[in-house]
Amino acid sequence: QVQLVEAGGGLVQTGDSLRLSCIGSGRTLGNYAMAWFRQAPGQAPGKEREFVATINWNGRTTYYADSVNGRFTISRDNAKNTVYLQMNSLKPEDTAVYYCAANRNGVTWRTSENSHMWGQGTQVTVSS
């Protein structure tokens, strides 16, 4: 079983950039597709986490939510067992807890219910 740990969140201003990292331990992430989801403050606990971006096992296929397309970039370094989310031109509506997720099938996905493993989340706060 792989464990996921996110890092890189923080408090920034509108227009700033952040890079989130998701480091895997326990086994290689090289066979997993990876994704980032987020949960905004005040969101109902039972509500599905919002899809942000996903990348397949070899990094050749990526998809983004419309709300972040052109501003966020997902990438991976399988040698470092790490997945990244580069976030540029941040907006207050990007404020959320960001979660890294893994799917053992290796292909991209966009619904939180199809995630097989989760990290603990990292808080991103964008002030106006």
What portion of the residues fall into strands of 2 or more residues? over 45%
Which class best fits the helix and strand makeup? mainly beta
Helical residue percent band:
under 10%
* Radius of gyration based on Cα positions: 13 Å
**Overall number of strands:** 11
Order of helices and strands: EEEEEEEEEEE
Secondary-structure map:
Elements: E1 3-7, E2 10-13, E3 18-25, E4 33-39, E5 50-55, E6 62-64, E7 72-77, E8 82-87, E9 96-103, E10 117-118, E11 122-127
Parallel strand pairs: 2-11
Antiparallel strand pairs: 1-3, 3-8, 4-5, 4-9, 5-6, 7-8, 9-10, 9-11
What is shown here, in short?
With 128 residues, the chain is mainly beta. It has no helices and eleven strands. Strands 2, 4, 5, 6, 9, 10 and 11 form a seven-stranded mixed sheet that branches.
Question: What features would you describe in this structure?
Answer:
There is one protein chain. By secondary structure, the protein is mostly beta strands. The chain contains no helices and 11 strands. The chain has strands at residues 3-7, 10-13, 18-25, 33-39, 50-55, 62-64, 72-77, 82-87, 96-103, 117-118, 122-127. The model has no long low-confidence stretch (mean pLDDT 94).
